[in-house]
UniProtKB/TrEMBL annotation:
PANTHER family tied to this protein: QUINONE OXIDOREDUCTASE PIG3-RELATED, QUINONE OXIDOREDUCTASE-RELATED
Protein's name in the database: NADPH2:quinone reductase
Enzyme Commission number, as recorded: 1.6.5.5
NCBIfam families xref list: PRK10754.1
Length: 325
């Protein structure tokens, strides 16, 4: 029987159980796929710990992105063929060897994109796409601040933002991570452990500050992120790796410059298939053009996912990580 990782009770990495599971045949509109590579993301930790509720209840199989091969198709799926290479990003369910999935959540992989690249970039790359092109439309001449610049989304977004003509500032937790970010499009890097990122942003920009701040860190970078924005700037909070932002009065946005603030999620932005396909196509195009390079910095066997989670939470990983079934 195929194997999967399941969480029966919320907890630490030890809650990730590697066990046999039954996989049904695909029904109408579905596809059975065999995974070849699976992406690792911080949102997987949120589902494991219970910070985010599992969409289908417990037990939950974490994992929001993967690539694989079509093994069987259900009735009505006429745009895919057995043997096609496909990839996807949905909230949960990817930590497994095989799964049945709604075919409309899949995209075909073009030649030139490997399975490991796809698994490493679907969630992170489409996150970068909606942040840069839809949440705040970055254009040439804009100044962008991105927290956790050496993370999986950061290394993609830094390259993409630079490709769009922006000045890109990133924060990191170590000098090594700073060097990695600088090699991935960031013009300036601030070590938040040894530097005051608010003061550094002001110095870098000559006091003009940033057009947009992308913040997936949460508690540790708030409200400092707001102080890095020019008047009418946009604060984009799309994660909370250090814990949730505490409640605050909306009048704070007025006090700090009539700021805009939003809390977007990928799965709302790509809820419609046409939006998801456009997002994936934009990602494939920018990678195939060479403007964005997808480097896989860590690989773990699927059965070793508990160690992968421990390393991710311990900030021992950089960039993208894949699990190999």
């Amino acid at each position: 029987m195929p194997k999967a990782i399941r969480v029966h009770a919320h907890g630490g990495p030890e809650a990730l159980v590697y066990e046999e599971v039954e996989v049904a045949r695909p029904g109408p509109g579905q596809a059975l796929i065999r995974h070849t590579a699976i992406g690792l993301n911080f949102i997987d930790v949120y589902f494991r710990t219970g910070l985010y509720p599992a969409p289908a209840g417990m037990p939950v199989t974490p994992g929001g992105e993967a690539a694989g091969v079509v093994l069987e198709l259900g009735e009505g799926v006429n745009w895919l063929s057995v043997g096609d290479r496909v990839a996807y990003s949905i909230p949960t369910g990817a930590y497994c060897e095989q799964r049945v999935i709604a075919a409309d959540k899949l995209v075909k992989l073009p030649d030139g994109i490997s399975d490991e690249q796809a698994a490493a970039m679907m969630l992170k790359g489409m996150t970068a796409e909606y942040l840069l092109l839809r949440t705040f439309k970055v254009k040439a001449g804009d100044t962008v601040l991105y927290h956790a610049a050496a993370g999986g989304v950061g290394l993609i977004l830094g390259q993409w933002a630079k490709h769009l003509g922006a000045t890109v500032i990133g924060t990191v937790g170590s000098d090594d991570k700073g060097e990695l970010a600088m090699a991935h499009g960031f013009d300036h890097v601030i070590n938040y452990r040894s530097q005051d990122f608010v003061a550094e942003v002001a110095a870098i920009t000559g006091g003009k500050k940033c057009d947009v701040v992308y913040d997936s860190v949460g508690n540790d970078t708030f409200p400092g992120s707001l102080d890095c924005l020019r008047p009418l700037g946009t604060f984009v909070s799309f994660g909370q790796s250090s814990g949730p932002i505490p409640p605050f009065s909306i009048s704070l946005l007025a006090q700090k410059g009539s700021l805009f603030a939003t809390r977007p999620t990928l799965f709302v932005y790509n809820a419609l298939r046409e939006d998801m396909v456009r997002s994936a196509d934009a990602l494939f195009d920018v990678v195939l053009s060479g403007a964005v390079e997808i480097r896989i910095n860590q690989r773990y066997a699927l059965r070793d996912v508990a160690q992968a989670h421990a390393d991710l939470e311990g900030r021992k990983t950089t960039g993208t990580t894949v699990l190999i079934p």
